[in-house]
Design a protein that fits this description.
CATH architecture: Up-down Bundle
CATH superfamily: Rhodopsin 7-helix transmembrane proteins
Strand content: under 5%
Number of helices: 14
Shape: globular
Largest sheet: 3 strands, mixed
Number of domains: 1
Subcellular location: Cell membrane
Family: Belongs to the G-protein coupled receptor 1 family.
Organism: Capra hircus (Goat)
Structural class: mainly alpha
CATH topology: Rhopdopsin 7-helix transmembrane proteins
Helix content: over 70%
Membrane topology: Multi-pass membrane protein
Radius of gyration: 27 Å
Protein name: Olfactory receptor
Distance between the termini: 95 Å
Strand order of the largest sheet: 2-1-3
Length: about 350
Amino acid sequence: IAKQFSISKCHPNFRSFGSPFFPSQVTQVMTSENQTRVTEFLFSMFPHLHEGGLLFFILLLLIYGFIITGNLMIFIVTQLDVALHTPMYFFIRVLSFLEIWYTMATIPKMLSCLVSEQKTISLAGCLLQMYFFHSLGITEGCVLTAMAIDRYIAICNPLHYPTIMTSKLCIHLTAGSCLCGFLLVLPEIAWIGTLPFCGSNQIQQIFCDFTPVLSLACTDTSLVVIVDAIHAVEILASFLVIALSYLQIIVVILQMPSAEGRHKAFSTCAAHLAVFLLFFGSVAVMYLRFSATYSVFWDTAIAVTFVILAPFLNPIIYSLRNKDMKDAIGRLLGYQKRAGGIER
């Protein structure tokens, strides 16, 4: 009775007997007070075991095993074989190293969600996944840009190539790529970490990404337009540098008098061009859409392309489609076989 009396004094429209009437302002306050703050998110895109989750788990586990094994093989071969101690294979080695950690940021959690009934991730875990996934992705984009510049100098200015692309410059370019990747995304992650999340906690994506997570925030997220613009500048800058480099490379290759020289130059650049188109094509479709929206199916399909498919194809492109790499793998395996025979 005392509580009703105090409320009726504050709000004259309140009726003590019968159905009470709360002004809209009071309703909003009580609604906001009763909302539970979200501390973990639920991935709603993964099927349960009896719905085909086990099949997807086995398939993804095999793909992940191939990604790790293939990139480790490339890393070890390019490190041990002296013939591959060139700037081009230095960047391939760096890219393989980054791919291992890039996939490690998302795929293990996907595997866990496919076999576990608890398809959840904590808020802190979600922020960390976003940070490492995007920072490693941006670093990869920068390394691909450095590889395009390397190929441009090698083909368009071959006489000065040894003096320009030194080991010191390669290390500086790699360090700059890592610095760019791990610093650019940090302010955005810090901003998302300050947002309140309440209400629904279902992420309609296969990993924590900016748009699905921001859609769950119960506050104004209009700053995401600025974030989208920053991402657009990053992607377009790398895309333009790489595209212009390969355009000039193609022009120079077509002017070569020797058919054998043209074939060798094209085969050298084909692998880089394929990785570039696969990586930047899917990333551009995903992050250069601004206010455009796709269906959940297409969002997931695009995510699978650059989260799973691109890392799966990279070892194939850089090893099976590369004669120097195949020869180096053969030399390494042959050496190990001879060494084993001598021991016996």
